[in-house]
């Protein structure tokens, strides 16, 4: 599958991570830490299973490991910031779904662990940046705040802007608003990538003079 098509698949597979979660930047930070940890763990686990030649147990080992990571992470989160753990609820297990989908569709052993891990973390980095930007827009324009996780509480910085004055801004905090925002960001990404592709294939001034 081509690189650009992979990007679209990654975003589509992570709609479960982007849409149901309340549009707060703090919640995104918490979930994306787990997402990246699971991406690293799942990649290492796949190669360990492959080298130990226990592929028949792959699905069971994978499921138990990522579920255990999610449960362990939620317990730590409950101690660190109970309000975030309570608000997210079962959403804390959404990064598990995203990381497993990516691994099952694009698993490759032939290039080795190092290459596979680098490629997967590049993917995770793209998804992390995209999701953080997505939640930042929803937090600022949908709620008029900027939030961060903190010890035993949620830090809320109120911005000098009231989203209730415009219905369009409040709409971004809703599920339909989140879907619309994903569509807009995707269209912007496609537009920019097409322009960069055209620019990269355009002949330089020196080449035009030589012709």
General shape:
flat
Distance between the termini: 36 Å
Our estimate of the beta-strand percent is 5-15%
Number of helices: 10
Assign a percent range to the helix content: over 70%
What low-confidence regions span 5 or more consecutive residues with pLDDT below 50? Answer: none
Q: How many runs of DSSP E, i.e. beta strands?
A: 2
Largest sheet: 2 strands, antiparallel
Structure class? mainly alpha
Could you report the average pLDDT, rounded to the nearest whole number?
81
Order of helices and strands: HHHHHHHEEHHH
Q: Give the radius of gyration.
A: 20 Å
The neighbouring-strand order within the major sheet is 1-2
Which structural traits does this protein have?
mainly alpha, two-stranded antiparallel sheet, 10 helices, 2 strands, 211 residues
Report on this structure.
This protein is mainly alpha-helical and 211 residues long. It has helices at residues 3-13, 15-18, 25-52, 58-80, 82-88, 94-106, 112-143, 167-171, 175-201, 205-210; strands spanning 145-150, 153-158. Strands 1-2 form a two-stranded antiparallel sheet. Strand 1 and strand 2 form a beta hairpin. Helix 3 runs antiparallel to helix 4 and helix 4 packs across helix 5 (82-88). The longest helix is centred in the middle third of the chain and has 32 residues, at 112-143. The radius of gyration is 20 Å and the shape is flat. It starts with a helix and ends with a helix. The mean pLDDT is 81.
